[in-house]
Specification:
Helix content of chain B: 40-55%
Structural class of chain B: alpha/beta
Number of helices of chain A: 15
Shape of chain B: globular
Structural class of chain A: alpha/beta
Distance between the termini of chain B: 41 Å
Strand content of chain A: 5-15%
Number of strands of chain A: 12
Oligomer: heterodimer
Shape of chain A: globular
Radius of gyration of chain B: 20 Å
Number of domains of chain A: 1
CATH superfamily of chain A: Aldolase class I
Strand order of the largest sheet of chain A: 4-5-6-7-8-9-10-11
CATH architecture of chain B: Alpha-Beta Barrel
CATH class of chain B: Alpha Beta
Strand content of chain B: 5-15%
Number of helices of chain B: 15
Largest interface: A-B, 42 and 32 residues
Largest sheet of chain A: 8 strands, parallel, barrel
CATH class of chain A: Alpha Beta
């Protein structure tokens, strides 16, 4: 199997599984507890059906949408994800360049392995910086200032990682960052020699936004769950979010809002967007799927800020369903991470091309030529 | 595989399966008929979703609650389960000590292999005695009197075992108590020499609480099913339950109530609590699961009775969902019996620690400071 055999989400996943040492693959692939929410994030889309309209004249389809004041050529973007150089040695460089080519937004995590400055010198299309609220206020200020200086367009504050989720696959594989060779994982690393060679020869593994402030994650064997539980400030509240929002002074989103009540408060504190998300099912298992919750949130605040549907998206039709319910755009992490692991920049570009082609085809089959043609009239919920 | 690799129900179950002779493992593991209710008990939790609130400044959530007039450290406890000596040589002593350590209820079955007095001597933690109404009323009276003298805090009367369920796994494995070596099962016993050694060299197997009154279940090889059918009074009615409640004259629950109507009657006869339960899917297959029924019962009687959800609980999030639907606490049998079989007192402690940590973590992720904040607004049922 190679890249040209990858036609959909599950193909990219298979190729990633072949390329990655298993603790790293399972770090991407796994979720919390019994992974019920993870599965629901995708299966939620299957409880609603699209109803096409025919004879509409659809030879030209415009997929562009405007979020956070930026026009994107695609109605979806690449969510910020941590530690990308673990998945492919080019990491964020590969993802950023691919996003630029398709003129969509990509997110850079506070736990990125390439600095905001370097990204910014490489990518002039819209960029989101994802922010964790650390106990160390100096670190928080530094992240904010650097992202601002690097001309990032949007700041997203993650609010669903107040403590680490129970990711049992990581407990079993002993996933740490940087990866630690244990007897159990040694075999898996040994059977993926290319990953090992690239990891060791293509530049040191770093967390450039954190390294001046903390040792965790750089030279301590720290799991992501540990990082969330020990480094982040669990007392973070609405006042802190509001302060960050005004300090940033630009487009600001909360990532991980699930309740209508919280969505309304996000408007009150000055957010211009929210990412309806349960962190890809990696935090609270048994929590509601973004698509299940989307309509209520759009009804409450859809006219006041940009509502993004994040999580479980594997197909163009999933995006059409979310956009029909009123999401301004969709986003995903695994959506491009498997492709990144599978083949770096070429992999992400192929994934983006596949999703773009699907969207175009599905729009035509639906009888729609622009995103604003999509509405709830296109959807029927099964009982 | 060892105790430290046990992260969840499945892990404890696997380890128990390794340690126990198969007739004994299947006695715990099995339900009645096709086990549809057994499966539904857990699956029912997956049809509704938790909706977290973010930025809630939760700090350290308080997991304490009061049950049967005693303050407990978390809203879960060990259901009464018969013949624990079969699962581990320490039997009820192990579970009672583990429960005390975690500040919650241990429950003693009428069919325990340890006596009321014996357990009361080793544990000052919260204790619930489980009563069966025997055909011989003097057995029932004796159990109530001794429980009171020994300082048990509460009593529950099991009302869903008027006749034994059709546990087909037991028919096939030839499960009897004490276990009888048949040709079919001899291999399975032979392959677990540790269990056999402990069983033969430990204290004699007996039903300690009823041994003076009946030799049944002690001297002759008898299946549990035959014991239930011979010893328990199938004519038991509300009058008998009322008699027990009055005679006990303390916190009193009916265990195995499923209908709203019966829940209301429970108030009338002087109960302070009910355990919504179908006996872990071991009695009437095809009957409703506790979680499916808890909201209706709680809406009807939640302000007058403490509602305990018993059955299907495997995860901290299940407990959160049960509490959000109106339960005061949850209890479980199979899960702790597997942990008991897996590692005795240490096994049960490991399980209780896991469950405590899950409930704690999930409360933080839900943005809840205390159990009181778990209400119907935190839960959405899918259409």
């Amino acid at each position: 199997m190679n890249l040209k055999d990858c036609h959909n989400f599950s193909d990219f996943r298979k190729l990633a599984k072949k390329k990655l040492p298993s603790p790293i693959f399972h770090y991407i692939d796994g979720a919390a507890d019994d992974e019920i929410t993870y599965a629901r994030n995708t299966s939620a889309f299957d409880d609603v059906d699209l109803v096409p309209n025919v004879l509409r004249g659809v030879e030209e389809v415009d997929l562009s949408t405007t979020i956070f004041g930026k026009k994107l050529d695609l109605p979806f973007y690449l969510s910020p994800t941590a530690l990308q150089r673990l998945f492919h040695y080019d990491g964020e460089r590969a993802v950023g360049k691919a996003a630029k080519k398709f003129n969509t937004m990509f997110g850079v995590s506070a736990l990125a392995t390439v600095s905001v400055e370097e990204i910014s010198s490489m990518v002039d299309t819209p960029k989101m910086f994802q922010f964790y609220f650390h106990k160390d206020r100096g670190l928080n200020d530094s992240c904010l200032e650097r992202a601002k200086a690097a001309k990032f367009d949007v700041m997203a504050l993650t609010v669903d990682t107040i403590t680490g989720g129970n990711r049992e696959r990581d407990l079993r594989t002993g996933f740490t960052s940087p990866p630690k060779l244990t007897l159990a994982s040694l075999f898996s690393f040994a059977t993926k020699p290319m990953w090992g060679i690239n990891y060791l020869t293509k530049g040191k593994f770093e967390l450039p936004h954190l390294q001046d402030f903390v040792k965790e994650g750089t030279d301590v064997n720290s799991s992501i769950g540990n990082y969330f539980s020990t480094m982040l400030d669990q007392s973070m509240n609405w006042k802190d979010a509001e302060n960050l929002c005004s300090k940033w002074g630009g487009h600001f989103a909360l990532k991980g809002v699930m309740s209508v009540e919280d969505a309304k408060r996000a408007v009150d504190i000055g957010c211009t967007g929210i990412m309806v998300s349960n962190h890809g099912g990696r935090q609270l298992d048994g929590s509601r799927a973004p698509f299940d919750q989307l309509a209520e949130i759009v009804d409450a605040v859809g006219d006041k800020l940009d509502v993004i549907c994040e999580g479980g998206i594997h197909r163009g039709t999933h995006m059409l369903k979310a956009l029909s319910l009123g999401a301004k755009a969709c986003s995903g992490g695994r959506l491009y991470l498997y492709a990144l692991a599978a083949a770096g920049q070429a992999g992400v570009e192929r994934a983006l091309e596949k999703y773009r082609t699907e969207l175009e085809r599905d729009m035509k089959l639906m009888g729609c030529t622009k995103i604003s043609d999509l509405s709830r009239n296109n959807l029927r919920f099964r009982r | 595989m060892s105790l430290k690799n046990c992260y969840n129900f499945k892990d404890f179950r696997n380890l128990a399966k390794k340690k126990l002779p198969s007739p004994i493992f299947h006695y715990i593991d099995g339900g009645s008929d096709d086990e549809a209710t057994l499966r539904r008990n857990t699956e029912s939790f997956n049809e509704c979703d938790l909706v977290p609130n973010v930025l809630a400044n939760v700090g350290k959530p308080d997991l304490t609650t009061t049950l049967f007039g005693r303050k407990i450290d978390m809203p879960i406890f060990l259901s009464p389960a018969a013949m624990q000596r079969l699962y581990h040589v320490d039997g009820d002593k192990a579970s009672a000590r583990a429960a005390e350590k975690f500040g919650t209820f241990y429950s003693m079955s009428s069919m325990s292999n340890n006596s009321i007095e014996e357990i009361s001597n080793i544990s000052s933690g919260p204790k619930l005695f489980q009563l069966y109404v025997h055909k011989d009323k003097s057995i029932t009276d004796d159990l109530i009197d001794r429980s009171r003298r020994s300082g048990f805090d509460a009593m529950c009367l099991t009302v869903d075992t008027l006749v034994a369920g059709n546990r087909e796994k037991d028919h096939r494995t030839g499960f009897t108590t004490p276990p009888k070596l048949t040709l079919k099962s001899v291999m399975s016993f032979a392959m677990r020499p540790g269990w056999v050694f402990n069983y033969l060299t430990g204290k004699k197997f007996e039903l300690s609480n009823v041994k003076k009154k009946t030799d049944k279940g002690t001297n002759i090889a008898k299946s549990v099913i035959e014991y239930i059918n011979e010893q328990y009074d199938p004519l038991m009615g509300w009058k008998d339950a009322e008699y027990c409640a009055k005679k006990w004259n303390g916190p009193f629950a009916l265990k195995g109530v499923m209908s709203v109507e019966d829940a209301k009657k429970a108030i009338d006869i002087g109960c302070t609590a009910i355990m919504i339960s179908n006996h872990g899917g071991r009695q009437l297959d095809g009957s409703r699961s506790p979680f499916d029924q808890v909201k209706a019962i709680s809406d009807a009687v939640g302000d007058k009775l403490e509602i305990i959800l018993d059955g299907g609980v495997r995860r901290g999030t299940h407990v959160l969902k049960a509490l959000a639907s109106g339960a005061k606490a949850c209890s479980f049998g199979k899960m702790f019996l597997f942990s008991l079989a897996a590692g005795g007192q240490q096994g049960v402690e490991h399980l209780l620690k896991n469950m405590h940590d899950e409930i704690y973590r999930n409360m933080v992720l839900m943005g809840c400071k205390s159990l009181k904040e778990l209400n119907s607004s935190k839960l959405i049922y899918r259409k």
